[in-house]
Design brief:
By secondary structure, this protein is of the alpha/beta class. The protein folds into two domains: about 120 residues, Rossmann fold; about 100 residues, Arc Repressor Mutant, subunit A (Orthogonal Bundle), CATH 1.10.10. It is built from eight helices and twelve strands. Strands 2-1-3-4-5 form a five-stranded parallel β-sheet, sandwiched between helices. The protein has a four-stranded antiparallel β-sheet with strand order 6-7-8-9, covered by helices on one side. It has a three-stranded antiparallel β-sheet with strand order 10-12-11. The longest helix is centred in the middle third of the chain and has 22 residues. The relative contact order is 0.10.
C-alpha cells in the first residue's frame, strides 16, 4: 500500500526537493506551508508520517507537534530543524517527536530517517491486521510487555507509548543486561548511524523512564551505565 507523508514546511525549495525524492520511492506527499493548516491536515488525514519544520508561520512547529501527539500516539513525527535550534530539538523530542534532521540535510540521510520511522508504522499495522508473528510476553517486576500486540502494562495500567518508544523498550527488554551506547541504539532502533543525533536517544530514554519508572531519578528497568550508555535490568535484579 502506498505510504502517505505530510510535510509541514514553509520553504518551497525544501518541499519540492522532498516531494521529488519521496515520489521516486513510491510515496505520496501532501504539503502544508503553515502550522495551522498543517495541524488540521495531520489530525484529519490518514498519514503514515509527518515531516515537521520547527519555524512555521501562524503556529510554531513545537505546538503542532504537541497537539498531534495529544491526539495520536503512534503517528511518526520527524522534525526539520536548523543547527541554531538546539534547545528546540530537545524540547520537540520531549514533546513526542520521534526523530529530527538538521538542515541542510542530504537526501540519503532524509530517506534513511523516513524509512526507519515507516518500519514502525508497518509493525503497528501488522498488529492491527493480526498478521504479526507470535512472540512471547515479558513479565519483569510490575512491567508486562506484549511484543505481539505492542502493548505495555505497568501494574494494572496500560502505558501509552509512541511507536519509537515501544521499539526502544522492546529492543532493551529482549537483551537484558547488555549495555548499549547511544550510537548502537541509533543503529539498532532508528536504523541509521549518522553522528550528532544523540538527543534522539537521550530524549526517548527520558520519556520511557517517565512512563514506566516509579521514580525516574532512580530507575528500576532502564539503568544508566556510566561512561557507556544504558542497559535493561536483568530479572534477578528486581
Amino acid at each position: 500500500m502506498e505510504k502517505r507523508v505530510l510535510i509541514i514546511e514553509d520553504d518551497k525549495d525544501i518541499t519540492d526537493l522532498v516531494e521529488i525524492h519521496l515520489g521516486d520511492l513510491g510515496y505520496s506527499l501532501d504539503k502544508s506551508s503553515d502550522g495551522e493548516s498543517g495541524l488540521s491536515k495531520a489530525l484529519s488525514g490518514s498519514y503514515d508520517l509527518v515531516l515537521l519544520d520547527l519555524m512555521l508561520p501562524k503556529l510554531e512547529g513545537l505546538e503542532v507537534c504537541k497537539r498531534i501527539r495529544e491526539k495520536d500516539k503512534a503517528l511518526p513525527i520527524i522534525m526539520l530543524t536548523s543547527r541554531s535550534e538546539e534547545m528546540d530539538k530537545i524540547l520537540g523530542l520531549e514533546l513526542g517527536a520521534d526523530d529530527y534532521i538538521v538542515k541542510p540535510f542530504s537526501i540519503r540521510e532524509l530517506i534513511a530517517r523516513v524509512k526507519s520511522n515507516l518500519r514502525s508504522v508497518d509493525a503497528i499495522k501488522k498488529v492491527a491486521s493480526k498478521e504479526s508473528d507470535s512472540r512471547p510476553e515479558l513479565h519483569i517486576g510490575d512491567l508486562k510487555i506484549d511484543f505481539n500486540k505492542r502493548k505495555v502494562i505497568l501494574g494494572k495500567d496500560i502505558i501509552e507509548l509512541t511507536a519509537k518508544e515501544f521499539d526502544l523498550l522492546s529492543h532493551f527488554a529482549q537483551h537484558p543486561g547488555r549495555s548499549y551506547n547511544r550510537g548502537e541504539l541509533l543503529s539498532a532502533v532508528w536504523g541509521y548511524q549518522f553522528s550528532g543525533y544523540e538527543h534522539t536517544v537521550n530524549s526517548h530514554i527520558n520519556r520511557l523512564r517517565s512512563k514506566i519508572e516509579k521514580n525516574p531519578a532512580e530507575p528500576t528497568y532502564i539503568k544508566t551505565v556510566w561512561g557507556v550508555g544504558y542497559r535493561f535490568v536483568e530479572p534477578e535484579e528486581i
